[in-house]
């Protein structure tokens, strides 16, 4: 078989770019952990010696790290002064964890998921699942670190107001369950915004629930936020005005059973807000950078998680609006619509 030289070179170039990105990923996490990006953003332009001094790190490492970052377009280099800096846009992505553009958490997610690579390869052979709890503990923090900026930017200001009547209910004092709450980032943001309401965060993963309790105490909202270790099909309580599920429905082994239980625990005019990763309905329409990231994370984390449970309907993280709607209406909800979206998320409004 003859190879087309030009096409071959394109594939090699793609692989070199991705090899560079893979090797670069731990250096992004290290840059965040050591405050290298933040210092460049605050005090740049800096030489490697100045950055090392300000961050109390070893200059020889920093001298190698900086061009690796500049080659990838993550920092900006001035060859005349031999100094490096971050543009405001680079700083928003790498140095400001309150920005919705902050992306460092996503690198942490990919790296921590990869730590159980051999277990995942074995799961490909057997078809068995890999439970949420089987991942490296860094993953649970990474998920919080990656999603919190999105929720902080959108949840209270855009997503809840896009739901019919929910903002008014919560202002007056509503009962809320946040199902699949993880470390409780969304639960706490809502509790801070709606002091008259009460919130229960629910998650089957005990260490995440313990972390969520700590976060709520630190945020000073523990008086109106509690957490329960339970699945979406088994949590206690009834007559919730508002149930939320953030980036978790597709991780569940029985999303239809989960929907049925949510419906049972809602008031008749209650609302279920489902936040999912952005996806189009057709595979072909997801073959882009976002789809690549989401299918990869789904293969490493979400799909194995659902397969470890009932595996009744394994949605994957790119189920799209139709896939989510079918699961929700099969669970008994009669009304479903897309209420909002961002480049990363779809937000759905479901009613009994
Ligand atoms: C990707 S994390 C999202 C966590 C959190 N909602 C957030 O956005 O930061 C998915 C969460 O779903 C939880 N989960 C998995 N299966 C579940 C189930 N059957 N019922 C409820 N939660 C579940 C996991 O324990 C995990 O905390």
Features:
single chain; 352 residues; seven-stranded mixed beta sheet; globular; binds S-adenosylmethionine; Methyltransferase domain-containing protein; WH_DNA-bd_sf; transferase; methyltransferase; WH-like_DNA-bd_sf
Can you give me a brief rundown of this structure?
The protein is an alpha/beta fold. It has helices at residues 5-33, 36-43, 48-55, 59-71, 88-94, 104-114, 117-126, 138-159, 166-172, 185-193, 206-219, 255-265, 289-307, 320-330; strands at residues 76-78, 83-85, 175-179, 198-203, 225-229, 240-246, 266-277, 335-341, 345-351.
Topology at a glance:
Layout: H1 5-33, H2 36-43, H3 48-55, H4 59-71, E1 76-78, E2 83-85, H5 88-94, H6 104-114, H7 117-126, H8 138-159, H9 166-172, E3 175-179, H10 185-193, E4 198-203, H11 206-219, E5 225-229, E6 240-246, H12 255-265, E7 266-277, H13 289-307, H14 320-330, E8 335-341, E9 345-351
Parallel strand pairs: 3-4, 3-6, 4-5, 6-7
Antiparallel strand pairs: 1-2, 7-9, 8-9
The structure holds S-adenosylmethionine.
């Amino acid at each position: 078989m003859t190879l087309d030289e030009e096409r071959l070179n394109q594939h090699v170039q793609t692989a070199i770019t991705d090899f560079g990105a893979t090797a670069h990923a731990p250096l992004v996490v290290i840059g965040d952990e050591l405050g290298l990006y933040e210092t460049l953003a605050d005090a740049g332009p800096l030489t490697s010696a100045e950055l090392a001094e300000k961050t109390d790190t070893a200059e020889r490492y920093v001298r190698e790290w900086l061009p690796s970052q500049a080659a990838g377009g993550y920092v900006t280099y001035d060859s005349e002064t031999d100094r490096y800096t971050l543009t405001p846009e680079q700083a928003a992505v790498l140095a400001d964890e309150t920005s919705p553009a902050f992306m460092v958490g996503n690198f942490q997610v990919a790296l921590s998921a990869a730590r159980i690579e051999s277990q995942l390869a074995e799961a490909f052979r057997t078809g068995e699942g890999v439970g949420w709890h089987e991942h490296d503990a860094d993953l649970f923090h990474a998920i919080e670190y990656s999603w919190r900026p999105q929720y902080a930017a959108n949840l209270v200001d855009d997503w809840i107001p896009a739901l019919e009547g929910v903002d008014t209910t919560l202002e007056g004092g509503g009962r809320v369950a946040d199902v699949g709450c993880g470390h409780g980032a969304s639960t706490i943001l809502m509790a801070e915004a709606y002091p008259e309401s009460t919130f229960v965060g629910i998650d089957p993963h005990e260490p995440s629930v313990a972390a969520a309790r700590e976060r709520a105490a630190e945020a000073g909202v523990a008086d109106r936020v509690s957490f329960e270790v339970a699945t979406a099909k088994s949590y206690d309580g009834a007559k919730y005005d508002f149930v939320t599920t953030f980036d978790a429905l597709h991780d569940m082994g029985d999303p239809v059973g989960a929907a049925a239980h949510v419906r049972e625990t809602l008031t008749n005019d209650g609302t279920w807000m489902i936040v999912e990763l952005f996806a189009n309905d057709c595979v072909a329409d997801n073959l882009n950078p976002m789809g690549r990231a989401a299918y990869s994370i789904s293969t490493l984390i979400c799909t194995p998680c659902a397969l470890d449970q009932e595996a009744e309907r394994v949605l994957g993280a790119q189920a799209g609006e139709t896939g989510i709607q079918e699961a929700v209406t099969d669970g008994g909800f009669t009304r479903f619509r897309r209420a909002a979206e961002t480049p990363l998320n779809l937000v759905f409004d479901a009613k009994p």
